[in-house]
Amino acid sequence: MTDSHHLELFQKIAPILKENAIGVDASGEFPRASIDAFLGSGLAGLISATDVGGLGQGPRAAVEIVEQAAQLCGSSAMIIQMHYAGTAVLEKFGQEGVRKEIAAGKHLTTLAFSERGSRSHFWAPQSTAKKVDGGVQLDAHKSWITSASHADSYVWSSQPLSAEGMSTIWLVPRKTDNIEVLGTFDGLGLRGNDSQPAKATGAVIPEGNRLGEDGGGLAVMLETVLPIFNAMMGGVGSGFMQAATNATIGHVSKTGYAHLGNELRDLPTIRAYVARMKNKSDAARTLLFDAVTAMETGREDAMLRVLQCKAVCGETATEVTELAMRVCGGMAFRKDVGVERTFRDARAGTVMAPTTDQLYDFIGKALTGMDVF
Ligand SMILES: Cc1cc2nc3c(=O)[nH]c(=O)nc-3n(C[C@H](O)[C@H](O)[C@H](O)COP(=O)(O)OP(=O)(O)OC[C@H]3O[C@@H](n4cnc5c(N)ncnc54)[C@H](O)[C@@H]3O)c2cc1C
Fold first, then answer.
1. Which of 47, 101, 279, 297 could lock onto 106 through a cystine, CB 3.0 to 4.6 A?
2. Which CA distances in Å does 200 have to 8, 137, 214?
3. Residue 84's pLDDT is what?
């Protein structure tokens, strides 16, 4: 297998994501055809170990795939990135059966961390777990779950069963009795990603579905989820920036003023904005892949870079897509230029937990010698 094998696999499904993206955004429907293509492509098991049938790749490959996907369909990119984030936990703590199903493309998973009570403070779930006859009873008000009605499982946080600590993580099959997905998602951006609240009222799962130690949820979140999640969110932001920049370059290079006989690119202001978009995108992407290298090599500043890469790519994606709207003028409001969807989709990157403002606080604490969490 070559280093770019995963990118070759992605190229086979890229036309399906591209073809469906506008319809998914318009209808707000889950991108079923795109996600079925993803599941059937071999990429569902991208970061699954080879001994369960996966491709055995790490965060770099996951970032590269979601970055490519985000250039075509933001909703699909977010669904894929949540699947990889859940898979990272299941690979480390899950049973062989579910790991094999993921590697075979028969199982889509996602994260269910955010709650009505703790909101974006994912490290402090208010939902509960208690031992009952036949297993563990979960009661929860989850506030956002990507792929809520379509995932096969949720990687779910609760307060601990009996141990000390802030949380415990569970594998919860979506079709567990007494779990109800509430409403439909009608969002500003990422409109097809089926991010809905869900309520568990006495939902019972086997105790063997625990992922990691009882009370060890924070360690799972910080050590297993946060690095790959933040890097992938950076990759999604990078994909939005590249898509917006390329669409803008295309627009200003072929649109002009008949009475002047020129194109938009003949205006120095327009060229300067395009240059700023490219500079910002490339600077953010360079930091992102430096974060990935820091993670891979265990560099001393790896955690700092992990915190930075989501903040920088998320925030810069909002700036670059805003510039795209400005440069493309009134035409930017129309869907055919292709920048307004990236503008809307990119807003989510700053509010996905850890949010940009939380990351600024964490980074500031780290830099001034305070405890981050
Ligand atoms: C499209 C989409 C998909 C999602 N998918 C999932 C999913 O699959 N799984 C999942 O678990 N969650 C998911 N989420 C939820 C997401 O991770 C956040 O938890 C959620 O967006 C936070 O929104 P809130 O209104 O609860 O924020 P709040 O917690 O109410 O925050 C409001 C504001 O306060 C700021 N703030 C809060 N704390 C601090 C602080 N300490 N310092 C500085 N500022 C602070 C925040 O930055 C924000 O600006 C999704 C969200 C979106 C938008």
1. 101
2. 40, 9, 19
3. 99
